[in-house]
Amino acid sequence: MTEVAIESRLTELWETPKNIYGWFATVDHKELGIRYLVTAMVLLIVGGIEALLVRLQLVQSNMHLLSAEAYNQMFTLHGLTMIFWYASPILSGFAIFLIPLMIGARDMAFPRLNAFTYWTFLLSAIVLYVSPFFHQAPHAGWFAYVPYTLTAYSPGMGMDAYALALIFLGISTTGNAINFIVTILRLRAPGMAISRMPLFAYSTLTISFVVVFAMPALTAASIFLELDRHWGTHFFDIANGGSTLLWQQIFWFFGHPWVYVIFLPATGMISLIIPAFSRRPVVGYAYIAISTVLTGVVGYAVWLHHMFTVGLSDVAMSIFSAGSMMISVFTVIQVFAWLATVLKGRPVATTSMYFALASVMLLVVGGLSGVYTGIIPVDWQVHNTYYVIAHLHYVLVGANMFPVFAGFYFWLPKMTGRMMNEKLGKLSFWVMFIGFNLAFFPMHIVGMMGMQRRIYTYAAGLGFDSWNMVITIGAFILGLGILISIINFFYSLRHGAVAGPNPWNADGLEWLADSPPKPYNFAHIPVVASRHPLWDTYENIDDPENDRVLDGGRLTPTTTWLDAVPVGIATIPEDSIAPLAMSLLVFGLFMAFLFQAMWVVLAMLILSFAIGCMWMWPNTEKEVV
Amino acid sequence: MSSLVQIPPPPIKLSGLSIDQTRGIQAVWALIATEATLFACMFGAYYYLGTNKDRWATQEPPHLVYPFILLAILLSSSAVLHWGELQVQKERYRAGRIALWFTVLLGLSFLVLQGFEYASEWGELTPDTNSYGSIFYTITTLHAAHVIVGVLILMYVGFQPHYGFARRTPHMPYQVASRYWHFVDAVWIFVVLLLYVIPNIQRYYHVH
After folding, report:
1. What three-state secondary structure class fits B200?
2. pLDDT digits over B84-128, tens only?
3. What's the CA gap between B163 and B44, in Å, rounded?
4. How many other C-beta atoms lie within 10 A of the C-beta of residue A377?
5. Which of A101, A172, A232, B139 could form a disulfide with A117 if both were Cys (CB 3.0 to 4.6 A apart)?
């Protein structure tokens, strides 16, 4: 067969029909990855607007732009949106688009599960955002401490929306994690031994395991909260033998590993971007990989540092304080590896590199304040002040949003086929960088001065006014910087230079595919001979006998998890409407719980079982020749 | 950058390989891991609520007869299903299907008997009696929900047209469903041990 014949045969097998059915039924990881990115960016804007409203309320003392209740709802929605519906899904979006390309596969291991997790992610955001329209949004912060969140103090649907939306999102996140685990361990290209995997795949694999073992804690906590609120149980009711600390323990057992879930994949992205623009292999590949995995493991042994002020035993606090400081060692190893890569390489000043280097810097600042707050007496001093807000924003914006923008400037040419505008990009970077530091550095200072978080206004004469003015101005400048990047995106989509397969001359397999990639990713399954497949001299797609075309159906090879020796051929299912139908039913289930319609709950359960049977029924793959 | 170490992998013809059937089982192991963590959190909550309180031991502990009958039912159902899996491996599909439907029956009888068990406890303990009642009924009901899901999955597999290798069914549904069922049974062992046996032992030492 000629190349043209091979490509048309594969396109016929893999292409999603371009009509309404195809749009709702697609299981293509590239399409779903882009949808994840777009949805998460929209939610970033929503959360950003909420943050700006919060900042307007705090711009000077004794403001009454928002009422106390509206302020509480606003900062709670901001935190929830950013932490759960932006920070993790945006990284999932990158991973869903990139991981199959990076490891040389044609799709994820379970493409329909992939579609299901996208739809559930989208619909869970709707479960959360129904409540503001009833003026009953959740109002107790993203960690929702009891007893304030019980019905006695929080009537209305707000906290129900919180608990149900999080259980719903947990289904999506867990499904995603299982999909990544099997994909990364089994679908790697022949020769891509685990010691040759891209570091982004390492971090995604790590956080997938973290999600599998952490997400159930949030589910359990949310179940307890719902039962206490509506079913008469006494988990958090001290008068009947409950414990308010139970919530904090379970929540933070989930909560701190979650911090690494939204942090580690971003470091994995930096570990790919910095070497690509330093023009040399990353320094200390093995050390970065090991630190990534250890961060995920030790991340389970630090959760008590959120609770130093509740009166726990000294021994417990000391152990967790030590754990919190130990975990910084693993981050420091990565930081020094990145710095060494830049110093030993020949750096290229692109927008993506700017964002990557800035995120390293912000991560160091946030990491240092994190080490301080890991020290018990310091934590007692700054607990619940703006110092903590400054710390968490330096870490989350520095180690999630800046790497995400670096990732956008790096990989958008692969997704859209067009280069982003560098001038606008650098302008956006500087505006964002200045705005961010203007907004969040002064928070360290007002925090040390004693300004408390989550108080809707403050009295005049405490010395907070001018700093808060600076913070609010900084927040708007940061928003402007993000806006410039969004404008850049739409401008470049039309007017950008055509990218070609490998515009940055980077090393990963994803740069072997076309930009944007064909529906089947690779006409010949690549074979890998080193850590940097595109920088070595080995011909990855050299396949004169067409052995690796696999055009007898939708097929991709499976390999052993350690050495990536091919052992089988995976069949990939076709497009299906079932994932969407299933997510709509689960959505109906959670909405019925939210509005306490128990017959609807039962109906949704029965219907979703029926749809599940249709989904799994083995008759939907294209017949094989 | 030609100085990079490069070791080409041994050439293996992809066209000679058979269809991979293991991904479904790997995914169900991951699902079991996350579900097991959910139960671990529940057990953690059980002990956290019971810490530093006499109540867990001094209160009348749950009766021991029903849970052991239930345990016997589930363990025998696992044995039957495992036997069925072996039959499917030996391509005796009819025997495998009978074993699977027998497992479904055992699962349903478990649910009925657990209803009787709840009825026997309900007089002294309900979910809104205190936090002990809350966690006791939450854990056992969560497990019952898993039994229901397990029974539904088994019934679905029971209706499937064939169990042999088929290129169209690459995920080995019989084996996947049986892994999940064994997990549900294993959880009940922990429930019996932690919620029934140990409180009774504690009670015994408390009285004597």
Report:
1. helix
2. 999 988 888 889 999 999 999 999 999 999 999 999 888 888 888
3. 40
4. 9
5. A172
Which one of B45, B53, B156 has the shortest CB-CB distance to A241? B53
Interface confidence, given as ipTM, is 0.93
pLDDT tens per residue, range B49-77 = 887 665 564 567 788 889 999 999 999 99
B 111-130: CB under 8 A from A: 127-130
| Contact between A241 and B130 using a beta-carbon 8 Å cutoff | yes
Measure Cα distances from B134 to B46, B115, B130, B138, B191 in Å: 9, 17, 6, 6, 15
Nearest alpha-carbon partner for B120 in B197, B71, B65: B65
Q: How far is CA A195 from the centre of its chain?
A: 25
DSSP, res B7 = -
Asked if residues A512 and A539 have their Cβ atoms less than 8 Å apart, the reply is no
Closest CA of chain B from A585, distance in Å: 17
Task: Copy the structure tokens of residue A202.
Answer: 């390492």
Tell the residue number behind the tokens 């497990």, with chain if given.
Answer: B143
Phi–psi pair at B171, nearest 5 degrees:
-105, 10
Q: Using CA atoms, how far apart are residues A79 and A114, in angstroms rounded to an integer?
A: 26
Furthest C-alpha separation in chain B: 79
Name which of A312, A325, A296, A48 is nearest A177 in CA terms. Answer: A296
The answer for residues whose C-beta is within 8 angstroms of residue B42's C-beta and 6 or more apart is: A220, B135, B138, B139, B142
Cβ atoms of A529 and A536 closer than 8 Å: yes
Please tell me the pTM assigned to this model.
Answer: 0.94
The architecture (CATH level 2) of A31-497 comes to Up-down Bundle (1.20)
Q: Tell me the torsion sign for CA atoms A598, A137, B135, A250.
A: positive
Which DSSP symbol is given to A458?
-
Residues A437, A446: Cα–Cα separation, whole Å: 14
Return the residue matching tokens 């011909």: A539
Cβ within 8 Å, pair A566-B152: no
